[in-house]
Amino acid sequence: MNLGTSTRRARALVTGAVGLGVLIPVVAAAPASAATAVSCTSSKAALATKLQKDITAAVAGRSGTIAVGLYDRTTNTTCSLRATNSYDSASIVKVTILATLLWDAKKHNRYLTDTEVSLSTAMITKSDNAAASTLWKQLGLTKIKGFLTAAGMTKTVPGANNYWGLTQVNVTDEQKLLKLITARNAVLSDNSRAFILKLMGQVISSQRWGTPYGTPSGVTWHVKNGWLQRSTHGWRVHSLGTFNGGGHDYMITVLTWGNSTMSYGINTIQGVAKVIHKDLAAS
After folding, report:
1. Torsion sign, CA atoms 168, 60, 56, 251
2. Contact 88, 11 (CB under 8 A)
3. Using CA atoms, how far apart are residues 126 and 230, in angstroms rounded to an integer?
4. Mean pLDDT computed over every residue of the chain
């Protein structure tokens, strides 16, 4: 879906494989407001101080709840804000779906089928919901939970009854996922990681908002966004991004909830991304 997608279609995210295309009015509690201060650490003390100040300024005065995660391997820099708060995943869970598919294929020593490649491509590059629903049902909760365990994503809770868009996620687990995608590990093969990054680098132009905003020249980006409006707490708007180049190797997760409009959430995410890219480029 692109920025011009109607509210009706955006709401259909919540139905997952059920395919009803209607909003299920589930009343959910807002994410807890604990740990509301930005915390940063780095091998470069001045960088940590700068990031903490600038991220704090970027989120100041924004309505709703914002959670942020940054990790840069090069400078061993980590920043977090509300990193353990849970959010409805919307479409960022599609990266987890693809990772689960590849993890399971590796376990069975097989390549993806042509159909699986096609579905995966549509799911990531166009955020196709029908493709996500097909793969979610094919995998089933046992395999999805198996991947989450292998990945150490212990606080991620798959949505029940095929409502993949209501999977509960947090910054900590999403950052673990991005770390798996961007460095050699025992969970995902090198070919699997390359495939995920390839698709995240081919997202259609209308969905390249969020964490890539302000990416410096010479830095390669990969992104997956999610957006969902519900009857309580407005829009959930999220963005996952990985970035490499300019002497840095980093990943950003921004999750937002309680946005009055989708655009408000996008602007919030991009305000955070802009200062992160700028500060890292100057370090």
Report:
1. positive
2. no
3. 21
4. 90
Tell which CATH classification among 2.170.270.10, 3.40.50.1980, 3.40.50.261, 3.40.710.10 matches the domain 7-21+45-281.
3.40.710.10
Structure tokens that stand for 48 in this block: 């940590």
The phi, psi pair for 145, rounded to 5°, reads -65, -35
Three-state DSSP class for residue 39:
strand
Contacts for 47 with CB less than 8 Å, ≥ 6 apart: 40, 75, 77, 279, 280, 283
End-to-end CA distance of the chain: 36
Which of left, alpha, beta for 45 (phi over 0: left; psi -120 to 50: alpha)?
alpha
Q: Which residue has the tokens 């740990």?
A: 35
Instruction: Kindly give the interhelix angle for 262-281 and 45-59, rounded to the nearest 10 degrees.
Output: 160
pLDDT in tens, 58-85: 999 999 999 999 999 999 999 999 999 9
Q: What is the pTM of this model?
A: 0.89
The amino acid at residue 226 is G
Torsion of CA 274, 55, 50, 92, to 10 degrees: -60
Which single residue is written with the structure tokens 């991220």? Answer: 55
Contacts of 271 (CB under 8 A, 6+ apart): 58, 59, 62
**Is the pLDDT at 122 greater than 50, yes or no?**
yes
**pLDDT tens column, 199-232:** 999 999 999 999 999 999 999 999 999 999 999 9
Q: Is the pLDDT of residue 101 over 90?
A: yes
Handedness of CA 182, 31, 61, 90 (dihedral sign): positive
